[in-house]
Amino acid sequence: MNCNRCAEPAVMHAAYSGAHLCEAHFLESVEKRVRRRVRRDDLVPRSATPDNPQKWLIGLSGGKDSVVLTQILYETFHEDPRIELICLTIHEGIEGYRDKSLDACIELTDDLDLTHEMLSYEDEFDVRMDQVVEDDPENMAACAYCGVFRRDLLSNYAEDIDADLLLTGHNLDDEAQTALMNFLEGDVSQIAKHFDASLGPLSERRSSEAFVPRAKPLRDVPEKEVALYAHLRDLPAHITECPHSSEAYRGEIQQLLYGLEENHPGTRHSILSGYEELAGIVAERYDADGDDPDLRECTECGSTTTREICRKCSLLESIQAV
Ligand code: SF4
Ligand SMILES: [Zn+2]
Ligand SMILES: [Zn+2]
């Protein structure tokens, strides 16, 4: 089968759009989707000028998603004096896993000459995920601890360096899963929060001064296409799965979505676009009701939280009590 746009052989077929694309046209189509998302989410505000550049912090794990995001953002903005890109890698303390992906991060940022920082749970919190999993004081999945710690480091670092935006490599599959999980859990306030935190166009979000806004410009690209992009461009992405990966419910939803997508191509796209529209309406409604949670400073670490002690500090307390 040849490419729909030229006479070259196709390297991929997207059932959801019917497109067959050659390598060059496939790469271009991924890049176009990311740039279109950057525009639609208003990520570059008018106030950004060469004298007042925007500082964008990219959460770079070394996996295919964040590597592809970094590469495309670099190619889009490295000659644009309005945008400054900085990469941050979080080391969770997972033997034989994060060390390899850290190598991928270093290779990529060296190649692109991007500023790269690394923070570890060990240095920041005096914990390693391997040990947390073994002790498991709260009887939870590894990712439930790990996600809290990662979010804390990413958002605190973003605040420390005065970043304007925190970007992560969530792809279409990730976001369609989250959307479906929020629906199935019936958690409408979570849907509103999701919109304000990382989904809606920046100009439409209820902005909270307390948090650096997040963005996910890769969320129109299916996971398989992100992987193919990384492979075709020979990007230094590390693809082994984390040995503690254990989000059982997410795994179930992922399988469900694979099946639906197979029989009804386009399902992930329609879930996410419908969800985003609804989430925007819900966020506005919550705003109009003035239903804002009381934000305060954690008495232990000073992070912004709705409780007296933030979730990270209470998890650290129970880990240290083991
Ligand atoms: S899969 Fe879970 S435990 Fe492993 S790095 Fe990701 S969040 Fe942490
Ligand atoms: Zn072509
Ligand atoms: Zn705290």
Automatic annotation (TrEMBL):
Signal peptide: none annotated. One of its GO terms (biological process) is tRNA wobble position uridine thiolation. The keyword Zinc applies. InterPro entries: Ncs6/Tuc1/Ctu1, Rossmann-like_a/b/a_fold, TilS/TtcA_N, tRNA_thiolation_TtcA_Ctu1, TtuA-like_LIM_N. Zn(2+) 2 binds at C298, C301, C310, C313. Keywords: ATP-binding, Metal-binding, Nucleotide-binding, Transferase, Zinc. Residues 55-189 form the tRNA(Ile)-lysidine/2-thiocytidine synthase N-terminal domain. It comes from the Archaea. ATP binds at G59, L60, S61, D65, I90, G169, D174. Residues 2-27 form the 2-thiouridine synthetase TtuA-like N-terminal LIM domain. Zn(2+) 1 binds at C3, C6, C22, H25. GO terms for molecular function: ATP binding; metal ion binding; transferase activity; tRNA binding. GO terms for cellular component: cytosolic tRNA wobble base thiouridylase complex. Pfam families: ATP_bind_3, TtuA_LIM_N. NCBIfam families: TIGR00269 family protein, tRNAThiolNcsA. This is TIGR00269 family protein. It comes from Natronosalvus hydrolyticus.
